[in-house]
Amino acid sequence: MLSHLSILANLITGFLGPVFALIIYLVYKDRSRLIAYHAMQSMVFQLIWWLGGGILATVLWIVAGALTAICIGIVLYPLAIAASLIPLAALVYGIIGAIQTSQGQDFKYWLVGDWVRSTI
Q: N or C: which end of the chain has fewer CB within 10 A?
């Protein structure tokens, strides 16, 4: 549950959530395969959706802002707004994962869970 909730650390620090999930993975990789799976899954999910989505949104806002000078950037604003919602959606999905794992259910992130399970 803590590895899924480590996504909340991104709200305060901006980037330390995957580090906390990695620490949990390294501590429990030999003791519990289930905890190691959830920690690695959380870390990969955060790297892709939180950091990747944040970088994508930043780039889109910069390009839209720069192109606004020639009126093309206005067309990119809806795309930039949509990309800005990616990290927020990742935050909600991480909290859902924490709730399900705290209730004893096996939680699997979409697209990430199967890949991580095959690598561990």
A: C
pLDDT in single tens digits along all 120 residues of the chain? 777 777 777 778 877 888 888 888 899 888 988 888 888 888 888 888 877 888 888 888 888 888 877 777 777 788 888 888 888 888 888 888 888 888 888 888 777 777 777 777
35 lies in a domain? yes
Residue 101's nearest CA partner among 93, 112, 89 is: 93
Whole domain around residue 95: which residue ranges?
2-115
Whether residue 120 is contained in a domain is answered as no
| d(C-alpha 67, C-alpha 55), whole Å | 18
